[in-house]
């Protein structure tokens, strides 16, 4: 059977692939420590589960409006007002089947064949693939590790052509955990306005910040920037609700309407009961995030100090999300590997520690470790990595 061209070059998600491999080894009886996961290891809070259960009993088990129920849209509008000082109307919000599908639908709605979308690297693995699926061309700008993995205004100016139609900003970032500050966003935003470039601002890790830095949405910096930006967010990471699949986009009414039309022919609507669960997350007085953040911060500090103690490994300390993205090129070399991908594979094979190679994120010298697992396992993983580097020289 001949497949469509659009899927022929599609690369499977490297994060999901490594998680599957680690699971397989575990099932075969190996003591694997998986640091590949892109999801919090905490359960969805009980009161959210109860709200979903109640919604089922109350009969909310039917189709909903394609763009999401009005109550949830209103709760999301309130969240934007409280957290980001942004004011939206319900026709400027779409609730989607996870933030991933918000992004997918957005690129389908925005990108024409041949259009260029700027993607700063290191990037989240799905951005380039989603842009390609919409017929667009991802234009990668390599953010320097020395600049804390942030692109500069000069790099942005140089990457812009007459085909550039959008840029993705992901702050706090997966995989690096870096964050842009207000001043940096302002400078990048001015360039986007000058060239009429749409800004896709993926703020899914907004709530997971471990320093005193404040999350800034580029959309809040001026009315013009708000008009030019589509903000992407969701409940997956902040409320430990990855499986519920609720995300959303906020932006210009015309874009949101087009996305809603697309959704009406693809998903119909995000799952009804998950929408009621998300509504509870946004309207409850309970605060599960603070506790989760405390645990993440403790793990980050511990794992970071152990990692930078390993020969050949350097690491910028992340400010947010739940990943470390060390440069492991020298460690790989010490172990006789020219490519970090091979080093990561050998580490899994021999020490049973699963990392995700940086190549999938557009950064060949790095690897991603998720600290969404217990501190004991993180310590054990770092010990195994150290032994591996030291014993195989
Ligand atoms: N954006 C980034 C940067 C992510 O890391 C992820 C999940 O890994 C998503 C979007 C998608 O989140 P969701 O689970 O809501 O689809």
UniProtKB/TrEMBL annotation:
Database matches in Gene3D superfamilies: Aspartate Aminotransferase, domain 1, Type I PLP-dependent aspartate aminotransferase-like (Major domain)
Gene of this entry: aspB
Entry-linked Pfam families: Aminotran_1_2
Keyword Membrane in annotation: no
Sorted UniProt keywords: Aminotransferase, Pyridoxal phosphate, Transferase
SUPFAM superfamilies in UniProt: PLP-dependent transferases
Cofactor: pyridoxal 5'-phosphate
One Gene Ontology MF term: pyridoxal phosphate binding
EC number: 2.6.1.-
Domain Aminotransferase class I/classII large: residue ranges: 31-382
Family recorded in the similarity comment: Belongs to the class-I pyridoxal-phosphate-dependent aminotransferase family.
Species of the source: Virgibacillus oceani
GO terms (BP aspect): amino acid metabolic process
Protein name, per record: Aminotransferase
């Amino acid at each position: 059977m001949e497949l469509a061209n659009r899927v022929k070059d599609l690369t499977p998600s490297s994060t999901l692939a490594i998680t599957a491999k680690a699971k397989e080894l575990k099932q075969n009886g190996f003591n694997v420590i998986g640091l590949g996961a892109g999801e919090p290891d905490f359960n969805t809070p009980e009161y959210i589960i109860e709200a979903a259960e109640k919604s089922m009993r109350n009969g909310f088990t039917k189709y909903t409006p394609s763009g999401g129920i009005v109550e949830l849209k209103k709760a999301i509008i309130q969240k934007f007002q409280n957290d980001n000082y942004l004011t939206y109307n319900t026709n400027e919000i779409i609730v989607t089947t996870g933030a991933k599908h918000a992004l997918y639908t957005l690129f389908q709605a925005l990108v024409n064949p041949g259009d260029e979308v700027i993607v700063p690297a290191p990037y989240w693995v799905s951005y380039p693939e989603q842009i390609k699926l919409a017929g667009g061309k991802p234009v990668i700008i390599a953010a320097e590790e020395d600049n804390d993995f942030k692109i500069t205004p000069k790099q942005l100016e140089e990457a812009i052509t007459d085909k550039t139609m959008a840029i993705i900003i992901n702050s706090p970032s997966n995989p690096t955990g870096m964050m842009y500050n207000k001043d940096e966003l302002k400078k990048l935003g001015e360039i986007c306005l000058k060239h009429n470039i749409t800004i896709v601002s993926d703020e899914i890790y907004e709530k997971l910040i471990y320093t005193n830095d404040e999350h800034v949405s580029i959309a809040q910096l001026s009315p013009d920037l708000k008009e030019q930006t589509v903000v992407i967010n969701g409940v997956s990471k902040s409320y430990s609700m990855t499986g519920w699949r609720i995300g959303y986009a906020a932006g210009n009414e015309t874009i949101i309407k087009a996305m809603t039309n697309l959704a009406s022919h693809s998903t119909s609507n995000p799952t009804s009961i998950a929408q009621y669960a998300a509504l509870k997350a946004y309207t409850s007085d309970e605060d599960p995030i603070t506790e989760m953040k405390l645990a993440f911060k403790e793990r980050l500090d511990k794992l970071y100090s152990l990692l930078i103690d390993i020969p050949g490994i350097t690491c910028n300390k992340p400010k947010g999300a739940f990943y470390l993205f060390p440069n492991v090129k020298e460690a790989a070399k010490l172990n006789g590997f020219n490519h970090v991908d091979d080093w990561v594979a050998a580490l899994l094979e021999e020490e049973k520690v699963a990392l995700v190679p940086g190549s999938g994120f557009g950064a060949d010298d790095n690897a991603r470790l998720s600290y969404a697992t217990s501190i004991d396992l993180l310590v054990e993983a770092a010990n195994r990595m150290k032994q591996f580097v030291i014993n195989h020289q």
